[in-house]
């Protein structure tokens, strides 16, 4: 019998029932936030059901929260819909006895930053959240999937999820990356290579020495963006880097339980003879920093590259799509991407708001100044990341350089709170989506790494971080 992949192993360990190809799997951890849960709780209540495992559920407030004045509390949130969602979540979790880090609590932050930080996210687990970027948690070798609101209700009620098993896809990333290249560039390179539908129907496991060399923060960035390649989840097998990160977290196993957990976690890897349905290889040594030029995460270009010319595409559909994207983005075919002058910079989001991301951006910002026409902001992923950054003096570096230093939340990753682009504004952003209107109506988003976003802030246009003097 052929060996098993990491995905197969986690799947098999959680399989409750199977019929006609459809399965029921047990869910170890259910993360919830204010946007995708009100209807689910209302549905439960209407059906007279209780939350099955409040102890395996954790709630945060992240999408709607303002990134200034959080100490004033939820009742002071200006937007009525946001305020109502935040108040509803607080009531629902209280009624159900679910642990909740409300806005202003130092442990609160973006759900995909908080789960790992608290040690709630653990290797070998099944994790769900009514949020597409749940794939982030795959960095720990957990099967972590985004689910819809009706599935949120199903998980709240039963602690299980119904689904069909996906296929196995392995992405090898090998070689020594050049300076300035990291996890965000790997992710953009993968999406650029396979497209936003390239991962459809698959769970992607990342393997290779360049993956082994990544920190947990880097692995989270990569798994976070896996959803933008269309895959159901991303995975990295746990190793010493993972275990080091887990050690001593509030919810990590302690004492004898730690040894037992370690032994279990170490069994989660793909067997050498496991069969993958698809595999690709990326040479990390051949990469340079990557940015997006268009309105899809697959619209990727090397920083020494040019805005594409619609005429060079094969199909009429594609030519029309590229023309539309260029018009929306206010770019001209054939111009160097570094000519794009920016108005705003956003360093944050569940892709890149962890301590290592902030350190990378601060290393570039240090002793330099944000260009006078640029408004730049740094939004830590959680209160604990913010506190850590402040303990390291990163806030001072950012402020002295002219960045705004904010309180945690999803912020300008999506236009669901006061942090938004104005129509026509161009933003260098460390987030994960560049769709039309994503950061505000008619706003223009270029995705890139924290170091590259900081470099753009200083240069005032999209810039190669390696060229800064
Ligand atoms: C609001 C939420 C449902 C949404 C998601 O699922 O991804 C958001 O987090 C996003 O990034 O667009
Ligand atoms: S930071 Fe952005 S991508 Fe992440 S959960 Fe929030 S809105 Fe979604």
TrEMBL record:
<keyword id="KW-0408">Iron</keyword>
<comment type="similarity">
    <text>Belongs to the aconitase/IPM isomerase family. LeuC type 1 subfamily.</text>
</comment>
<dbReference type="Pfam" id="PF00330">
    <property type="entry name" value="Aconitase"/>
</dbReference>
<dbReference type="GO" id="GO:0047508">
    <property type="term" value="F:(R)-2-methylmalate dehydratase activity"/>
</dbReference>
<keyword id="KW-0004">4Fe-4S</keyword>
<comment type="pathway">
    <text>Amino-acid biosynthesis; L-leucine biosynthesis; L-leucine from 3-methyl-2-oxobutanoate: step 2/4.</text>
</comment>
<dbReference type="InterPro" id="IPR050067">
    <property type="entry name" value="IPM_dehydratase_rel_enz"/>
</dbReference>
<keyword id="KW-0432">Leucine biosynthesis</keyword>
<protein>
    <recommendedName>
        <fullName>3-isopropylmalate dehydratase large subunit</fullName>
        <ecNumber>4.2.1.33</ecNumber>
    </recommendedName>
</protein>
<dbReference type="InterPro" id="IPR004430">
    <property type="entry name" value="3-IsopropMal_deHydase_lsu"/>
</dbReference>
<dbReference type="InterPro" id="IPR033941">
    <property type="entry name" value="IPMI_cat"/>
</dbReference>
<dbReference type="InterPro" id="IPR036008">
    <property type="entry name" value="Aconitase_4Fe-4S_dom"/>
</dbReference>
<dbReference type="GO" id="GO:0003861">
    <property type="term" value="F:3-isopropylmalate dehydratase activity"/>
</dbReference>
<keyword id="KW-0411">Iron-sulfur</keyword>
<comment type="subunit">
    <text>Heterodimer of LeuC and LeuD.</text>
</comment>
<keyword id="KW-0100">Branched-chain amino acid biosynthesis</keyword>
<keyword id="KW-0479">Metal-binding</keyword>
<dbReference type="InterPro" id="IPR001030">
    <property type="entry name" value="Acoase/IPM_deHydtase_lsu_aba"/>
</dbReference>
<comment type="function">
    <text>Catalyzes the isomerization between 2-isopropylmalate and 3-isopropylmalate, via the formation of 2-isopropylmaleate.</text>
</comment>
<feature type="binding site">
    <location>
        <position position="350"/>
    </location>
    <ligand>
        <name>[4Fe-4S] cluster</name>
    </ligand>
</feature>
<feature type="domain" description="Aconitase/3-isopropylmalate dehydratase large subunit alpha/beta/alpha">
    <location>
        <begin position="8"/>
        <end position="460"/>
    </location>
</feature>
<dbReference type="InterPro" id="IPR015931">
    <property type="entry name" value="Acnase/IPM_dHydase_lsu_aba_1/3"/>
</dbReference>
<feature type="binding site">
    <location>
        <position position="410"/>
    </location>
    <ligand>
        <name>[4Fe-4S] cluster</name>
    </ligand>
</feature>
<feature type="binding site">
    <location>
        <position position="413"/>
    </location>
    <ligand>
        <name>[4Fe-4S] cluster</name>
    </ligand>
</feature>
<dbReference type="InterPro" id="IPR018136">
    <property type="entry name" value="Aconitase_4Fe-4S_BS"/>
</dbReference>
<keyword id="KW-0456">Lyase</keyword>
<keyword id="KW-0028">Amino-acid biosynthesis</keyword>
């Amino acid at each position: 019998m052929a060996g098993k992949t990491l995905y197969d192993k986690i799947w098999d360990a959680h399989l409750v029932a199977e019929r006609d190809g459809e399965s029921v799997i047990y869910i170890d951890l259910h993360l919830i936030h204010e946007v995708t849960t009100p209807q689910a709780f209302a549905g439960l209540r209407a059906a007279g059901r209780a939350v099955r495992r409040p102890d395996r559920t954790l709630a945060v407030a992240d999408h709607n929260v303002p990134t200034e004045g959080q100490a004033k509390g939820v009742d002071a949130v200006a937007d009525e819909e946001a305020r109502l969602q935040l108040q509803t979540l607080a009531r629902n979790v209280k009624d159900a006895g679910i642990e909740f880090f409300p806005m202003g609590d130092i442990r609160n932050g973006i759900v995909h930053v908080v789960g790992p930080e608290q040690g709630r996210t653990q290797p070998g687990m099944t994790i769900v959240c009514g949020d597409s970027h749940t794939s982030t948690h795959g960095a720990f070798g957990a099967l972590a999937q985004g689910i819809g609101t009706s599935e949120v209700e199903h998980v709240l009620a039963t602690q299980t999820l119904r689904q069909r098993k996906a296929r196995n896809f392995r992405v090898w990333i090998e070689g020594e990356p050049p300076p300035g290249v990291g996890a965000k560039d790997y992710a953009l390179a993968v999406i650029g290579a396979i497209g936003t539908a390239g991962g459809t129907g698959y769970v992607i496991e990342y393997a290779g020495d360049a993956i082994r060399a990544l920190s947990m923060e880097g692995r989270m960035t990569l798994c976070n963006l896996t959803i933008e390649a269309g895959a159901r989840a991303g995975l990295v097998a746990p190793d010493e880097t993972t275990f080091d990160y887990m050690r001593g977290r509030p919810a990590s196993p302690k004492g004898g339980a730690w040894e037992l957990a370690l032994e279990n976690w170490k069994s989660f890897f793909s067997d050498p003879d496991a069969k993958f349905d698809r595999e690709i290889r990326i040479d990390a040594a051949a990469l340079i920093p990557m940015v997006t030029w268009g309105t899809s995460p697959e619209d990727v270009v090397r920083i020494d590259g040019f805005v594409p010319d619609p005429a060079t595409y094969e199909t009429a559909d594609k030519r029309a799509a590229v023309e539309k994207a260029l018009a929306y983005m206010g770019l001209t075919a054939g111009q160097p991407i570094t000519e794009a002058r920016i108005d705003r910079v956003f360093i944050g989001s569940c892709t890149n708001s962890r301590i290592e991301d902030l350190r990378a951006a601060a290393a570039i910002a240090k002793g330099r100044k944000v260009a006078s026409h640029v408004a730049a902001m740094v939004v830590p992923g959680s209160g604990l990341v913010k506190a850590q950054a402040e303990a390291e003096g990163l806030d001072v570096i950012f402020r002295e350089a002219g960045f705004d230093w904010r309180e945690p939340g999803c912020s300008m990753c999506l236009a669901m709170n006061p942090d938004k682009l104005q129509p026509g504004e161009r933003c260098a952003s460390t987030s994960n989506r560049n769709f039309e209107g994503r950061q505000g109506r008619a706003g223009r988003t270029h995705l890139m790494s924290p170091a590259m976003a900081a470099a753009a802030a200083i240069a005032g246009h999209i810039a190669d971080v390696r060229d800064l003097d």
